[in-house]
Amino acid sequence: MALVVQKYGGSSVADAEGIKRVAKRIVATRQAGNQVVVVVSAMGDTTDELLDLANQVTPAPPGRELDMLLTSGERISMALLAMAIATLGMEARSFTGSQAGVITDEVHGFARIIDVTPGRISSAIKDGAIPIVAGFQGVSQTTKDITTLGRGGSDTTAVALAAALSADVCEIYTDVDGVFTEDPRLVAGARRIPRISYEEMLEMAACGAKVLIPRCVEYARRYGLPIHVRSSFSDKTGTWVSENAENESEEAGMEQAIISAVAHDRSEAKITVVGVPDRVGTAARIFGIIAEADINIDMIVQNVSAIATGRTDISFTLPGADGQRALEMLRSAQETLGFQELLYDDRIGKVSVIGAGMRSHPGVSAKFFAALAEAGVNIQMITTSEIRISVVVDQSDVDVAVHTTHKSFGLDADEIEAVVYGGTGR
Asked: Which residue in 205, 245, 202, 206 sits closest to 226, CA to CA?
């Protein structure tokens, strides 16, 4: 008997019919001889609707009260799903994040999981019931307040709970049939990836692939927990994310692909600090200011210092939502830092190629850049890791860059494989 943790996203439980369909899948998994624990998101776009409602009341809702409001969405879907399972003749018990033992820090809106103590979940399993857990939420270890985990937090809840329960697998149900070589909403000819390593999936998630978030994948890698990404709208085999994806492909007689996927991200902005004094410690002070504001930096490029002036330019990318806040903090320190001006551009996009195969195959960069040049796409910034190459381009060039790159590396499927069953990209 396997212990399976299943997570269902908002598009899977968007309405009453969706909830009934999910309930049947859960009961079928149980009837197949497995123990099942379920993590569920809020219905459809409920979280966004609650955010809009809060912003209509006040432009700056207190974090504690906003978390209290937003967590109501998951509580609605967990209760309805438990009811639907009961109508099918099985007992289900719904639990909030705090009742399930999800312990976090005290940060509202983007809390980190400190520990999971799933005593009540284990008791429910022993009693023969199916636990239904509200995703995206926990309780602060220090303040005892309700907290939320940020976007994609239900995925992290599911993986953390699966690790705490020593589950055999964590199934992430979404509105597409697995992880594809690009978002099938943009590239209709994208291919499903049968197996992918944690390392590659982490790079994809960090580069804009929306099917899983980096925190979820990192948690799974830390505990060696296999993730099976699949659709709740079909019975097709999805994508397995695990440590040994490359070795398993080789054992099956398949050569490791040079490039596994292309990813894109339109949510970033670029700041250029112009005329920075080229002195020891200046960059440290600039990025120290950004770090104090808890803003994540992605790509960084520093120009060669001009001999005549002894000054340089530093460009970096960051989440577009944090752009104005970063500008304000840098402007307030302009006199101390001694730079000349700030340039801001939120009309950019990041396009990346990811693949463990590039470790042993030279020429990937040349092929990538040649494809972009042939399509007339100008590159503004470049950054690399051992298995990833990312470029920043004008936002208007993202679509053509993605299609050109996807085709250049032979990732287009011979026939349409991807079906988007519902949802808006999550």
From this structure: 245
